[in-house]
Queue: 2 jobs
Job 1
Amino acid sequence: MPPPKKRAETSSNPNHPYPEVQVTGIAVIPEVGKGDDLALLISEAARRQGTPIKKGDVVVVTQKVVSKAEGRVILLKRVKPSPLAVSIARQHGKDPRHVEAVLRESRRIVRMDHGVIIAETRHGFICANAGVDASNLPDEESVCLLPKDPDGSARGIREGIERRLGVEIAVIITDTFGRPWREGFTNVAVGVSGLDALLDYRGTSDAYGHPLKVTVMAQADEIASAASLVCQKTTGVPVAIVRGFGYKRARGKARDLVREPSLDLFR
Amino acid sequence: MPPPKKRAETSSNPNHPYPEVQVTGIAVIPEVGKGDDLALLISEAARRQGTPIKKGDVVVVTQKVVSKAEGRVILLKRVKPSPLAVSIARQHGKDPRHVEAVLRESRRIVRMDHGVIIAETRHGFICANAGVDASNLPDEESVCLLPKDPDGSARGIREGIERRLGVEIAVIITDTFGRPWREGFTNVAVGVSGLDALLDYRGTSDAYGHPLKVTVMAQADEIASAASLVCQKTTGVPVAIVRGFGYKRARGKARDLVREPSLDLFR
């Protein structure tokens, strides 16, 4: 078994002529609270468990710990539901305070049916409950909101780790979203820093030298899904290191993943 | 660096207390043609490059090579477009023979706009051009269709590899699909054998012991996306081995990923 250290680009290396990516869960993050320095906590946890962050790694962080560090957790007893929230909650069997939190995070309600509220967040993401979520919080009477500026949060964590360790990396912040037509949630990127969210193949050729047609891959979402294989919901592993994916350093952001409303056939 | 061999479940092992998944591209598949034995080709290619398939691996195979092996490539000169196909092609600047192939693979047209045909395939998948694709084919005057029964194709490859190597594995067949609301394509599962497509957390607890609410993860799609990190479109790496993902052996299928029309808010 060769050492899984090189980038995918080194597939031209005759000693290692195939691409290989390694996804490692960082299990030992202590309980995160408001004001905590995630760059410090993640760097230290990775070092302590014997898998320190290295140049070229993509550090993938679950939204929940970012929101906790940024104080984006609200106690439901502090939320006064509007008459609309009370009415919606009654129709759908929900907590009116939770519904109120969802409405406050939304800039548009896309669908409301089958007990599900699909909303567009102020960042432009379309997801259930505008990303407001009650799981993995110490207090059951609280809910967690998405970071205010997840791309900015990703940049802050990236710069913090880079300053601390002196290596260039990328950071992706993830959340689990549902989607039309297909069952099951998948992990997607809500914040990106240090690489492009989209990998654009237009103008390149396929393996036969023909021009590729359809060809913008959502690489940040695919990295988010890869991280999900080690960051499962029940394990308390909120961070993963994705190593060996040969990306180009770039100023991408998760907002690039939001389709222009005028080009979207399904709004 | 510890040997990346164990399953994610062994995170209770004090010598290796974190989950780790390895994704390895299998680069050396020779040109696949109709009637080829993919189980043989994949097993041999993995062995030759020094990364043989092992018990518990998920072998992820790009749809294109499966379709080629199954003879699901058609020459456009053999396709006689219907008047509807000619009319659609004219409106959208497409090849009428390609449109005809798309219509034959569709059981419903979901949207037709912005030069894109979103169709429901006879398997129930909703995707651009009903999965009919012209890239990565030796002859530019041909198109590739999805396998007739991709879950059956996955089962055939799984059983072939298991018989040959005497180890239990799982197989996922992938394609790249677009999605509403978010830019970029992601790799998803169109065929599954040997594990569940959906990972159902309902009835389990989060890291704080609270019951999880939203909680069916599309694990087959997340594995497909992880494989995409090494199977990029331009590299000619049509197969990946995902190792270390602790799944339960089960009789899942990709059709489980298709949402019941009556529960879908976006058809």
Job 2
Amino acid sequence: MNNVRSTTLSNGIRAVTKRIDGFESVVVGYWVEAGEVCEDLSNNGISHFLEHMAFKGTTSRTAKEIAEEIESVGGYMNAYTSKEVTAYFAKVLGEDTKVALNILSDILQNPTFLTEELEKERGVVLQELYQVKDTPDDIIFDHFQEICFKDQSMGYPIVGQEEVVAKITADDLREYRSRYYNADNIVFAAAGNLSHDELLDMATENLNAFKTDVSPVHDVQYNYVGGSYSDVREQLEQVHAIIGFDGISNLDADYYTMAIFSSILGGGMSSRLFQEVREKRGLCYSIYSFSSSYKRNGVFGVYSATTADKLAELSDVVAGEIISMSNGISEKEFKITKAQFKASLLMAGENNTSSCEQIVSQIRIFGRTLDNAEVLEKIDAVTIDDVKKLTHRILASKTAVVTVGKCDCSSVLAKLESNGLKTV
Amino acid sequence: MNNVRSTTLSNGIRAVTKRIDGFESVVVGYWVEAGEVCEDLSNNGISHFLEHMAFKGTTSRTAKEIAEEIESVGGYMNAYTSKEVTAYFAKVLGEDTKVALNILSDILQNPTFLTEELEKERGVVLQELYQVKDTPDDIIFDHFQEICFKDQSMGYPIVGQEEVVAKITADDLREYRSRYYNADNIVFAAAGNLSHDELLDMATENLNAFKTDVSPVHDVQYNYVGGSYSDVREQLEQVHAIIGFDGISNLDADYYTMAIFSSILGGGMSSRLFQEVREKRGLCYSIYSFSSSYKRNGVFGVYSATTADKLAELSDVVAGEIISMSNGISEKEFKITKAQFKASLLMAGENNTSSCEQIVSQIRIFGRTLDNAEVLEKIDAVTIDDVKKLTHRILASKTAVVTVGKCDCSSVLAKLESNGLKTV
């Protein structure tokens, strides 16, 4: 991984690139450290709306021209908004890097927010909002986040609330953009078929509109609360459920311990939850655990879906499996999980989108890139005792329980309580 | 692409491999030419059930041992059932190819179908069936297939019908397996970090249980019918809709013309539907066209989702855009689409799962592999006039219309009719 280089451009933007030999394509883009967590009740959804509007026209390109220009070289653009980051990136053949970079720099620096385009895009965003709402295993994560971080911006939906999205104006977008889209908050990154020096020259040339003299405003506070919520929908066949707990931040000393904990409990096919809930009892099709880490905090949870008649049994088994992690894990489980981390690190390096996301995260979180050897060292340093201690830490948390489906979450709560877990 | 080699093993199994330089990982697996189309009303779902049961134990491994063995080398296994193919494959680091191949060969050749495991897995499959049913943009494709191929096996759901899945026995699985899982019907394939010769030696050694002396039974007939169906669900915010037509087979002379037609109409961001329906009118978040080709036939369709109040307008615009393709396409559109095909061919070669799927399809359909130059030549040979002629062919078809959502499909049908399209 000595083909990774990072620097800070003259305008203050952090830049990081990874050359992957043998690749014809390159992923290149901008990761802005501003996301839904920066919002409040009066503008919830604005980060995501702004991401949409970036594609709707600049001072020199219409929406159609943006699409045609990138696709005429066989490339494509994408973007996403998360809790703490908004990303804009393109995938093109290496020889077309300049085309991608010109367009990306333009949509990031010179969006026009024309009223007519804004009104049409509001319709698109609202349709996206309804689509999320209609997808049980999508909307349940919004409910979960809300319960974990009740009445805090970290708990609001990324796509926004319907009545707020209905009112966002071009001036709101401009104000939000000037506040967060400054050089200090941007990471420029690329991975694949590239030359580091050429790319930085292009980026420096293209990124002249951003300023560095804006004071950092990104340090939003949030605390895990916990609780429960039922979204009852009689027309569904299944009940989707998440059983969650207070988690850890990106910078927590237990970061890799959490990764191992989550993998053994509910990672792959050999994980405890997959074996016990699906293989041994046939209670579900999907079950997995997840750990979402943010700057200051995080959440841990188990997602599954089953029919109402099996929900209590499933909850009982899930609670039991989480608790049983505090009795320790076997050497065999430990060995399997470490092998999985090692292989997945290598496999991630074979994909330029994953590679790009990886180096951006490292720059954002640690201020530098980590090579595979260093990550593996951190994973190797985790002990079975660390996992045990982390389990106790997780179990000390109040639970966050959400369900979407035919019945409410009362049978889940009852089973958690009978297993001694703390419900709110 | 001269690193692609294909051969037929001594037992009759076709084998194809692609070495990708610079990769540490390899995807390896078996693609069996048997899928849902081989079923009838008495055993619908059996192809998919059999795929599930492959992971539930062999004469020498329990389900847990299968999972642990592949994950202990950091690999993972996957499988899927489609209309005409059932696939079993693994991704591992190159050095662990033998481990993956041993397990895959075992689950394919020596499954036990123990009653106890069968009953538990029936529960899992039923939960999967409910999950599909609860996901609007998933179940709508089952409805669409049913309307396109009314009362024919090509129209049945892959996951099966609840009452049929409830009754499938171990003997049914054995009978189906012995009928379709024979050497003539299997393609063994791998892509990534591999040596062709070593891999074929391993495969020949591992695949001794399959026979070649079974007469081919796979030539199922099916004809496109068309019609309409509404799955009314009052609790949904949106109405999901597919407007479809008779399509083309994998071997049709117009195969690449169809690919270009579909790309210009509803492929990327610069496509007519994306520009007209989403960008200009803000009527939806998702819209795209698709062409599914099978051995004897295929279907073409446009999927979108919007709120009930906008469904008629959306249908009117979609119908208009499809019809307008018969007036011809511009040189610019033609150029963009060809650039997209060229780039996506190169990009697919940078992923070992896509590479594997690509060479398997070529072996299955053409009996040989095609290098990128040959595919590009076929794409280059398509003319604007070919696209115009194909549009007339598509428009001569009766439509297949399905909706899932708040209202029925009557407003869609009315708009298709007012545009002169044929409804059933």
